[in-house]
Amino acid sequence: MFQSRTRFATGTVLALTAALSLSACGGSKSGEASASSASCVDTSGDTIKLGFLNSTSGAMAISEQTVRDSLSLAATQINAAGGILGKKIEPVVEDGASDPAVFAEKIEKLLTGDCVAAVFGGWTSASRKAMLPVVEADNGLLFYPVQYEGLEASKNIYYTGATTNQQIIPAMDFLKSKGVKTLFLAGSDYVFPRTANKIIKQYAAELGIEIVGEEYVPLDDDDWTTQVAKIVEAKPDFVFNTINGSSNVGFVKAYYEQGLSAKTTPIISVSIAEEEAPAMGKDVTGQFAAWNYFQSVKSPTNDAFIKAFQDEYGADRPTSDPMEAAYTSLYLYKALVEKADSFDVDEINDAADGVTFDAPEGTVTIDGENHHIAKTALIGQINADNQFDVVWSSEKPIEPDPFLEGYAWWDPSAE
Amino acid sequence: MKQLQTWGRTWGPLLAIALVAVALLMVAPAVLSPFRLNNLGKYVCWAIAGVGIGLAWGRGGMLVMGQGVFFGLGGYAMAMHLKLEAAMASGGPDAVPDFMVLYGDGTMPGWWEPFRSGAFTLAAIVVLPALVAVVLGWAIFKRRVKGAYFAILTQALAVVFATLLVATIKQTGGFNGLNQFTQFFGYNLYDPVNKRMIYSIASVALVVCLVLVWQLYRSRFGELLVATRDAEERVRFLGHDPANIKLVAFVLAAVMASIGGALFAPITGIISPSDVDATASILLIAGVALGGRALLLGPALGALAVGFGRTTLSETFPDQWTYFLGLLFIVVILFLPAGLGSMWSQALGRLRSSRPTPTRASAPTPTDELEVAR
Q: What is the number of domains present in chain A?
């Protein structure tokens, strides 16, 4: 079916292609990698470029926009106060589009194209995992502002949200102090809930709390009817909620419709904050949440933060944990650069241990070893104004332990 | 003049493909930074899948809304191999991927085991999607499912596939997907020279796919495929089984999508459910529609344009870019339903109709926009 002249011409094009491609590539085997490109960050001018990489489109935009807002606020404040080492921050913003592959592309663009000194952003673990190899290969810096499942430490990432021993484990301590005997686990089928529940189950065995059920639904699935029916049947003292995002609405709906309430079977959540509480579609007064910051935290620093934020974005805008952690991350970066007296990544890392900032949540301190920060754990109870009353606190900052090495009961290989 | 026209019709497409090859393999590496070249590599992967969609949809009339599934099969097959390669480089021949230790109990499912072999992986990238497409296609086409029902069915497959991936954290990395690859068949992935090599492989794959479909379109099979698209019943009455004709196009499209996915993983360094879900599948379709689905180069150039547009628009207008992209699609669908590439053939057609020579349309373009409902 091929004519001979065509066959000849086709062969020519393919041969040409092969020749072109051979000239284009001269691959080198691993081990003999060419020297990685030196940092292209320009520190000669009177500004310093920083990348803000958050999803402003897609499913995560509603959450990540709040982080973008508080990063912008921190940049404005720092610039008004003279900048970092006398240089004004010049934000370069990019949209992660709620897609890990886009995050990987954009952070590469920020680090090697725009030559930013550091990148701030990411929300889902998927986005962080996608950025990690890029930021390591380029020896850049990423500040990640969201509580997460731990089990990670990179010399090129600073984690300013909580790791598990600053949120999940204190929440279990709180439940123990409340005399909880039985616990039901409800989560999204996602890496954070899976890992959190693995930790919860092992710690519960240690504390003598019985796990009477464990249910997952896919991310963004709203139908919790059957799972909640199992909660009704199991009659646990408490429900540990690791559900992600909008799926919480379906869960809370089924929970109240099947007759459960904060009096009989209270919920403790790790993803419902000031932004989410009013959006649940039900009155969630009396339910609990574990975080490291609440808008209700009483301190002059927090009052100033809330005032500045609401002056900028409107009095109806609440402040929440990830927003505070993002705001703090930019100030921590300023403190790091000033201590190192340099924008160089290696010099910043050498100077990192012990850098502190008087944050809205309280004083936070960088651990130079694992690049997480010491944070105080708080448990809040939702009041009628959809704010959280702090009912329990770890009193002092908890040292970060992302791999739970200091917890004898933790066995990562057990189910 | 007539001779020149005939010559152009025969060799013009090949010349165009050669131009694409030169642009991708010579011009782009010379003028683009390593980062931009790698980005172009990503669009090339979408373009490879796009060529397949052009074959199945543009010529075959099958609106394949779930090509993300095949893109994902290739992508995950490759990613599994790269993940194992990374694990074996640091932990010896029995090492398992890091996420299985972190989120599971450190044991690897048996079906991962063969992907330690590079040869098996390469074979799987072609055979796996072909098998799936044969089984699916057989069941669908023999039952004469077509039009909107076919489109919905394939779209649903993409949803199921992504949901399945998200739900199997311990086996597939779940929502996070697979990433942190360090080497590609022994080549260090952090070395820009090797990244350029993978880019070249992707570009060559695209050119080969273009040459292949060009030959197919010229062949009797190509004529039959278009005939099936335009009048399936008549083809049946002429003694051909339309199911078989469609099946071949569907399988070829699946394999092309799989190859695109397989190269996407090392180029972007990650494959996750959001690269293969319904939205990703629709964006693949969008590129093909933009470029012109029934044209030879339309699907590939359209996919490249959409990839380029997504990057450029989002860099220039990080907060509004999705609106611009949406607007672009609306404008093209409204005013150029056969794609941007049809501007060229329309102009040519006008030129030709002013002459007395009767010619048969060289690039068969679907005439009605409602073929989905057919």
A: 2
Question: Which residues, in sequence order, are CB contacts of A29 under 8 Å at separation 6+?
Answer: B186, B187, B188
Q: In terms of domains, do A287 and A387 share one? A: yes
Based on the fold, state whether residues A154 and A69 are members of the same structural domain.
Answer: yes
Residues 98-117 of A with CB under 8 A from B: 98-102, 104-106, 108-109, 112-113
Q: In degrees to the nearest 10, what's the CA dihedral of B30, B32, B36, B42?
A: -40
| Same domain (yes/no): A176, A288 | yes
* Amino acid identity for residue A210 in this structure: E
Among candidate residues B293, B292, B299, the one with its CA nearest the CA of residue B343: B292
Residue that is written with structure tokens 């794609």 in the block? B339
* Cβ-contact A37, A17 below 8 angstroms: no
Asked if residue B220 lies in contact with residue A15, where contact means CB atoms within 8 angstroms, the answer is no
Confidence at residue A27, expressed as pLDDT on a 0 to 100 scale: 45
The answer to whether residue A62 is domain-embedded is yes
The parent domain of residue A353 ranges over 47-162+301-374
CA-nearest of B345, B267, B348 to B40 is B267
Residues of A whose CB is below 8 A from B309? none
Is B102 in CB contact (< 8 Å) with chain A?
yes
Q: What is the CB neighbour count within 10 angstroms for residue A28? A: 16
Q: How far does B102 lie from chain A, in Å, by closest CA?
A: 7
Q: What is the ipTM of this complex?
A: 0.86
In this prediction the pTM is 0.89
What span, in angstroms and rounded, lies between the C-alpha atoms of A72 and A78? 10
pLDDT at residue B167, rounded to an integer:
82
> What confidence tier does B91 reach under pLDDT thresholds 50, 70, 90?
confident
Q: How far apart are CA B127 and CA A183, in angstroms?
A: 48
Q: How far apart are CA B246 and CA B145, in angstroms?
A: 11
CA B9/CA B1 separation, integer angstroms: 12
Would you state the structure tokens that stand for residue A246, as one six-digit string?
């909008």
| Structural tokens at position B61 | 């009339």
- Residue of B65, B251, B62 whose CA lies nearest to B161: B65
| Pairing label, strands A267-269, A356-359 | unpaired
